[in-house]
Design goal:
6 strands; alpha/beta; globular; 13 helices; 334 residues
């Protein structure tokens, strides 16, 4: 519950109780309890002092939870799964990227728009965590995730303020910006162009930047650029652990990824980042980022533009779809 709503809810409970409507309050609380008990999935994170034995707290919670579950009078959802399962991590990521044999290019012209956006997406399957098939130390020694962290540094290098993508589109007034995102959950690498006044010129400018870097890597990417990218990544990694709330979120993420604790995750990350070289970054550039400029590579690309926008053939052969077409497909699927 949002803290903005908590005060009103608590006051409502007190007022109804004082007015002799305690049964009404209990009934609503029981309904909430029943919803939680009958939930079909999810997980709970407990924050405990490092000096305490966590299993004692977990066992107590599990015992009380199961007692509530047994007392619940509403029909149970049929399931063979246990009510509480301790530490079901790591959770395996699932690729949500279609198996494409050719580019999937979609252009959606919208009459009411005055600016455009573009979304490129390619399949990304890079390990970013230990597999658990060998000891943590052995996998770390082999730098099992070096390509993932090299790509993380490359993304920061290309997309930073006053960086290659920024200068190519925002510096020339084509678009507010161009950003690359790593999406490990859905196993995708995404290039996004936002708030474009001229989406065609922005896309062509990005293609040119990628081509220039591909043909002139050493002159385009300096050791200073690499050091700056490392600094940005290290700063961002420190930022996500800078407050109690962020530390809790990071701890949950660590558990989902199968790390024992924050110390183990930080060690995995720091050792890999320190080992990344320009050659590593060049390898992931060739394997992934360069694909954004290849109109024949099987990637997904979405263009949403004003209705009078014409897309040149050099960006690829786009299938034109209306919002009604997309809406009809969505309804048919769901």
């Amino acid at each position: 519950m949002s803290f903005l709503e908590q005060e009103g809810v608590l006051k409502g409970i007190i007022d109804r109780t004082k007015a002799g409507k305690a049964d009404e309050v209990v009934a609503k609380l029981c309904k909430i309890q029943n919803t939680l008990l009958r939930a079909t999935g999810g997980f709970m994170a407990l924050s405990l002092p490092s000096s305490e034995e966590p299993n004692t707290y977990i066992d107590t919670l599990a015992r009380e939870w199961n007692m509530c579950f047994e007392r619940c009078t509403q029909p149970a959802i049929a399931t063979d799964a246990p009510v509480i399962k301790r530490q079901p991590f790591p959770i395996n990521y699932e690729s949500r990227f279609p198996n494409l044999t050719k580019p999937l290019l979609v252009h959606v012209p919208v009459q009411s728009l005055q600016v455009s956006m573009s979304l490129f997406s390619i399949k990304l399957d890079l390990p970013d965590r230990p597999t658990g098939k060998r000891s943590f130390d052995d996998e770390l020694k082999d730098l099992a995730s070096i390509d993932f962290f090299a790509l993380q540094m490359l993304v920061e290098l290309l997309g930073r303020i006053d960086g290659p993508l920024f200068n190519a589109v925002r510096g020339k007034g084509y678009s507010y910006g161009a950003f690359i995102f790593i999406m490990p959950w859905s196993k995708k690498l995404v290039l996004e162009i936002d708030w474009a006044s001229d989406i065609v010129k922005a896309a062509l400018a990005i293609n040119q930047v990628i081509t220039d870097i591909q043909n002139n890597w050493d002159s385009c990417i300096s050791d200073t650029d690499v050091s700056l990218a490392l600094s940005i990544v290290q700063y961002n990694n420190t930022l996500v652990q800078s407050t109690p709330k962020k530390m809790l979120e990071q701890s949950i993420s660590n558990s989902i990824n199968g790390f024992k604790d924050a110390t183990e995750f930080n060690r995995w990350k720091s050792v890999h980042l320190a080992a990344v070289t320009k050659n590593d970054m060049r390898r992931v550039f060739e394997r992934y980022v360069s694909r954004f400029a290849d109109k024949d590579y099987p990637l997904f690309r979405l263009l949403v533009t004003p209705s009078d926008t014409e897309v040149p053939a050099e960006l690829g052969s786009f299938e034109v779809k209306t919002l009604d077409d997309i809406s009809a497909t969505y309804k048919a699927d769901y």
